[in-house]
Amino acid sequence: MELNPLVRSPIRQFPGPVGTLEALFEHPPDSPRAVMIFGHPHPLHGGTMHTKVVYRAAKTLLKLRCAVLRFNFRGVGASDGQWDGGLGEQDDFVAGIELAAATYPGVDLWAGGFSFGAWIALCRGVADPRITTLLAIAPPVGRYDFTDVAKSQKPMHFIHGELDELIPVAQMRAQYQEISEPRTLAVIDGANHLFDGKVAEVDDVILTRFKIHAEEQS
User: What angle do CA 61, 66, 70 make, to 5 degrees?
Assistant: First the structure.
């Protein structure tokens, strides 16, 4: 596979719909098995691409030989623009998909995210035929529309905290029952919404789920 020249140099930013988006695009040493575009938590509540769960998930996916693009939504960090209620942030995510596709043509594209970023990733991931697999960590079910997500038959992997104080696990389980197969749900015992003290267990779930996913796809 001949890679786009962009791969040969670090990518710290890329063009978004309303200006430049700050980013970190990390690459495995060999040709990647997939490229994950990853969204961060709510911009108005301190969420950034450096949030611990986002950072650790990216490093775990790199261990699985995935390239990982994480970036700040508009108005966060050094990204241009301002908060747009979720609509513009979905457009930002699409720009990330375009970058990933252009950088690694022909490689599987995955969409993932944490909290608000999980909803963004799920919405844009089910809508884009290039996205083959989805990862949602503590998605904000009950706060946003998951209708199209539930209808999709793309593989989806969910991770949630047993003691999530913002999105009760019972609410996650109820939404999960509406999601079409194939899907998995891992509930981390004793974990709150930010997975304080439990991030390593999130890493373990990602490693397990995506190793199995790779075996099933091979």
Answer: 70
